[in-house]
Amino acid sequence: MYDSHVRVSAAGSPAASSTVTEAVLPGIVEPDGIQVRTRPARPAGPGQVVLAMEAAGVSFAEQQMRRGKYYDQPPFPFVPGYDLVGRAVDAGEGVPGRVLGRRFAVLTKTGAWASHVSVDVGDLTEVPEPVDSADAETFVVNGITAYQMLHRLAEVRAGDTVLVLGANGGVGSTLVQLARIAGAKVVGTASSKHHDAVRTLGATPLDYRDPGLHEQLRALAPKGYDAVFDHVGGEGIVTSYRLLAPKGTLVSYGTASTRDVQGSSKAPVLKLFARLMWWNAAPNCKSAHFYNIWAGRRRLDTFRAKLHADLTQVFALLADGSLTPQVAARIPLADVAKAVEMAESGTVVGKVVLVP
Ligand SMILES: NC(=O)c1ccc[n+]([C@@H]2O[C@H](COP(=O)([O-])OP(=O)(O)OC[C@H]3O[C@@H](n4cnc5c(N)ncnc54)[C@H](OP(=O)(O)O)[C@@H]3O)[C@@H](O)[C@H]2O)c1
């Protein structure tokens, strides 16, 4: 039993220790311009938990944010960090004391690159105890995104043929693994240096820079693809749509091709939305969606229930060995610049994870 009205904390909580270490994006900077600073710790507020970070991810979103190119990033300066795994060390008023000492995953969008992070208790999903924190971290934003696109939007089934762009990336490699578990045949694009890794995950790799890519994609699925997952956007999205089978589903979930293009961060996304709406209005049986992990958050209880259910499924697959985590490197938070450089180098397979 617990007393849900009393503030409680565990040994090692920031209420007991005095400072928090965090990485700050001060503006549009190169990786070595990211600042590491300390500030006084704050106790957990009502309904909140303080997590002592054990692993925080370096995602594609931060590559966009440090260029000022993420669709709805906060104004500078801010602490980035899309997701983390951490242990509860302080619980605010109204939070069950039994959460203390347990390990949770949480999606934050920003704020996770810190030694201690305050989050709403309703946003926590427990990590099964035998699973390593960095391993679990690789499947938080990647796992939720891949699982929901595959099972809630495209409804991929055994026997389907699917195309995953960027099949060695964080989301892409998770999509490949989950699609294989669902019994689908998977074709995945990636740089040729990553083809062995993609093959190991169970997909047929193709080089997205090969001028003959389109013919190769057609040859591998002559009747078209039942689902195409596209994070690249730009003009290539037209090809993705054309590759669909007569009842196929296009799931677009990013505009990575415009990361280094000068100008508005919103224009490429709005152009993409217009295209998807136009295709959906076309008189055929194909469908085209944009997936946004934050969609539906206005109905918070439903949003959280789906997220917990889906991430719990992903963690169960990780715990039983069905999913293979790919941790490219574990880098201390103090060396965040090195972590970002590595994540952006295009040389690593898997996710770069920050550790305390
Ligand atoms: N909409 C949402 O809610 C949501 C949620 C999560 C993530 N995302 C988006 O998902 C995307 C991937 O994120 P991530 O963290 O998985 O990134 P990541 O690990 O850095 O992977 C990016 C991948 O993109 C590949 N790539 C780059 N250019 C390509 C091209 N022209 N054609 C095909 N593949 C290409 C890279 O392949 P090589 O390394 O082989 O070059 C790499 O595999 C990002 O755009 C991110 O914003 C969206």
UniProtKB/TrEMBL annotation:
Record organism: Streptomyces cremeus
SUPFAM superfamilies found in the cross-reference section: GroES-like (SSF50129), NAD(P)-binding Rossmann-fold domains (SSF51735)
Domain Enoyl reductase (ER) stretches: 27-354
PANTHER family in UniProt: QUINONE OXIDOREDUCTASE-LIKE PROTEIN 2, SHORT-CHAIN DEHYDROGENASE/REDUCTASE
Protein name: Medium chain dehydrogenase/reductase family protein
InterPro entries reported in the protein's UniProt record: ADH-like_N, ER, GroES-like_sf, NAD(P)-bd_dom_sf, Zn-ADH-like_protein
